[in-house]
Design goal:
The protein is mainly α. The chain has a domain of 65 residues. Helix content is 69%, strand content 12%. The chain is built from three helices and two strands; from the N terminus they run αααββ. The chain has a two-stranded antiparallel sheet. Helix 2 runs antiparallel to helix 3. The longest helix is centred in the C-terminal third of the chain and has 35 residues.
């Protein structure tokens, strides 16, 4: 049991570290995602994270012998996916604020006019 826990923890740390390492940059042009793209990624990550947590917890309830360990690991992995989803939602809001284009009614010399803010 201790070997299985150690190997699983080692694999989880390796996957987490590899996920954060971006590797060498091939081109200097960065692709900037739109707020909608960030929201799509957030939704996908949250759906995957919630699904992993639910399935793992169901396995933990059905088979208590080894299921508790599977439930804990799936809960941690699912939580990581949900946290990444929340980060994408925050990035979506920041990108939306940076690209704030609005159309307002403002007074002009001839009355009211539409003013577009870039």
């Amino acid at each position: 049991m201790k070997k299985l826990l150690f190997i699983s923890l080692l694999c989880f740390i390796t996957i987490t570290v590899k996920g954060q390492w971006t590797g060498p940059k091939i081109s200097t042009v960065e692709i900037k995602l739109s707020p909608g793209d960030h929201l799509i990624k957030a939704g996908n990550n949250m759906l995957i994270g919630t699904s992993i947590s639910l399935v793992g917890n169901l396995v933990g309830i059905i088979s208590p012998a080894e299921g508790y360990f599977i439930g804990v690991v799936s809960g941690i992995v699912g939580s990581v996916f949900v946290i990444v989803g929340v980060v994408h939602i925050i990035k979506s809001g920041k990108t939306h604020n940076e690209n704030d284009m609005s159309l307002n009614l403002q007074p002009t010399q001839n009355g009211l006019g539409l003013c577009m803010k870039f």
